[in-house]
Amino acid sequence: MELLRSFTLNLTVEQMLVQQGRNRSAGPASAEMMRLYQEAIAKAKELAEPVALYEVFDVQAVQDDALLLANGYALRSRLVVTQLARAAQVAVALCTIGPRLEAEASRAFAAGQGVMGFLYDSAGSLAVSHVARTVVQHIQEMAARRGQQASFPISPGSADCTLEDQKVVFDLLPAERIGVRLTDTFLMVPLKSVSLLIGLGHGLPTAHDLAQCHFCARRDKCPHYHLRTMHEFEQSHEG
Predict the structure, then answer these.
(1) Per-residue pLDDT tens over the stretch 110-155
(2) Cα–Cα–Cα angle for 61, 155, 12, nearest 5°?
(3) Where are the chain's structural domains?
(4) In 3D, which of 85, 221, 229, 42 has the Cα closest to residue 75?
């Protein structure tokens, strides 16, 4: 198991606006709204405690309805079974920004400061997406050093991946090490947490080929899809 604590949160107002579903061709936000967004980003950077862990598990076999791990556990989401069928291993990851920003958003809502509560919550969602993206890149680099491919990441509870696989993630990883727990209804606490399944091997659909968003009927209307596209654009212009 590897524990990751070194993260840089390069959050921007434009990313927040895209995440919230604002049309990128829309006119600029007012100076006052820009100030509030920047305040929310500053608070997110102050209160976020990004941390992640992951472990790699060998795949034993693939059945019609399950990807069987060598340790006896099975992942049963159709998306996992179909897209990771060629994986020799699966990297299982969990990441969070902790509870402090979430608590600050709750305090703002309770104090009647709904706008700031919303913006803190939005900044938290953006922050944990940055952490998840960094974890994916770390696993991709690890796979490359091994001479393997890394598949596109799959998150339980998102398009075509059932929440039941979330229970498997928490059975496989010591989530308490990073302060995350799973409720009886498969909800992660703190809420700003993300789990990931990434196949390792050869002949896999990589993040250059596909994304979980491609299997979601709502992708064209989903701000998270447009945010992911924006991240890809930014990465293609780095270095």
Answers:
(1) 999 999 999 999 999 999 999 999 999 999 999 999 999 999 999 8
(2) 150
(3) 11-233
(4) 85
- 39 close to 145: Cβ distance less than 8 angstroms: no
Q: State the sign of the Cα–Cα–Cα–Cα dihedral 99, 105, 106, 107.
A: positive
Share of the chain above pLDDT 70, in %: 84
Task: Tell me what pLDDT residue 205 has.
Answer: 87
- E strands, 87-221, are 87-96, 149-150, 181-182, 188-189, 193-201
**What CATH number does the domain located at 11-233 have?**
3.40.109.40
Residue 78 corresponds to which tokens in the numbers above? 């159709």
Q: Can the peptide bond before residue 190 be classed as cis, meaning omega within 30 degrees of 0?
A: yes
For residue 179, give both structure tokens: 């302060």
Lowest mean pLDDT among 35-39, 194-198, 224-228: 224-228
CB contact at 8 A, 206 and 159: no
CA 39 to CA 15: how far, in whole Å?
14
Beta strand extents in the chain (DSSP E only): 2-4, 51-63, 66-69, 74-75, 87-96, 149-150, 181-182, 188-189, 193-201
Q: What is the pTM of this model?
A: 0.87
* Torsion angle in degrees (nearest 10) through CA of 23, 24, 28, 30: 50
